[in-house]
From TrEMBL:
Keyword RNA-binding: no
Domain of life: Eukaryota
Family: Belongs to the HscB family.
Protein name (record): J domain-containing protein
InterPro entries per record: DnaJ_domain (IPR001623), HscB (IPR004640), HscB_C_sf (IPR036386), HscB_oligo_C (IPR009073), J_dom_sf (IPR036869)
Length: 231
């Protein structure tokens, strides 16, 4: 019953392949594929990296690479892990966004303006994916061939009961102080789960990463409900 209730209340993911995937092997495969099909600048013909925003030679805005890797785009491909440096991520995002903003190409050719719009949109999506622990966890699993679905739910009855109790406390809250107390409890659970996700990805334990990502979705759902709360 609790399992069915969890499925009705929250979204989750399905792992549809065996869990023994190794990120290092995947990254090496992607690098080999990228090298074999290295693009060239549309304006000057210089060879480009796959996650290039501007040509290093002529500074022309480049088209978005299909299926661009967000880590390569915003973290120079040096870090394919769950843990990221928020300040470094934001700095790189703002730097590239300033260079690719469509307003900077209002007097440029139609091609350049369209490229800028696509690059700006992609940068926004990449940044919001990597800065958010839940979105980042989903993205990392997808990089390793894990398909995200909506049919898995929290398997631990005790933990599901705890989630439902916290949600019930929020539903019954009538004052800001009561909501603040619920928020404090939920934030602790959220941060604990983020830490466990980090450990799971660090040890390449995708079964554990899947489990903790599902848990994080529950705490994230309560976080959103807290933000929307009104007396």
């Amino acid at each position: 019953m609790l399992r069915n209730l969890g499925r009705q209340c929250f979204s989750s993911v399905r792992i549809q392949r065996p869990q023994q995937y190794y990120l290092g092997s995947l990254v090496r495969f992607q690098h080999a594929a990228a090298t074999a099909t290295q693009p060239a600048c549309w304006q000057c013909g210089a060879a480009q990296q796959h996650a290039t925003v501007l040509c290093a030679d002529c500074q022309a805005i480049q088209p978005v690479t299909p299926n661009v890797n967000y880590y390569e785009l915003l973290l120079d491909g040096k870090q394919h892990s769950f843990d990221v440096d928020p300040k470094a991520l934001r700095f790189k995002f703002l730097t590239l966004q300033q260079k690719a903003h469509p307003d900077s190409y209002s007097q440029a050719s139609k091609r350049e303006h369209e490229y800028a719009q696509l690059q700006s949109s992609t940068l926004n999506k990449a940044y919001h994916t990597l800065k958010d622990p839940l979105a980042r966890a989903k993205y990392l699993l997808e990089l390793q061939g894990v398909e995200v679905g909506e049919s898995d739910s929290l398997e631990d009855p005790a933990l599901l009961m705890e989630v439902m109790e916290i949600r019930e406390e929020l539903d019954e809250a009538t004052t800001d102080d009561q909501v603040a107390q619920v928020k404090e409890t939920n934030d602790e659970k959220y941060q604990e789960t983020v830490q466990r996700l980090s450990e799971a990805f660090s040890s390449n334990d995708l079964d554990a990463a899947k489990k903790f990502m599902i848990q994080l979705q529950y705490w994230e759902s309560i976080r959103r409900a807290i933000l929307e709360w009104s007396p």
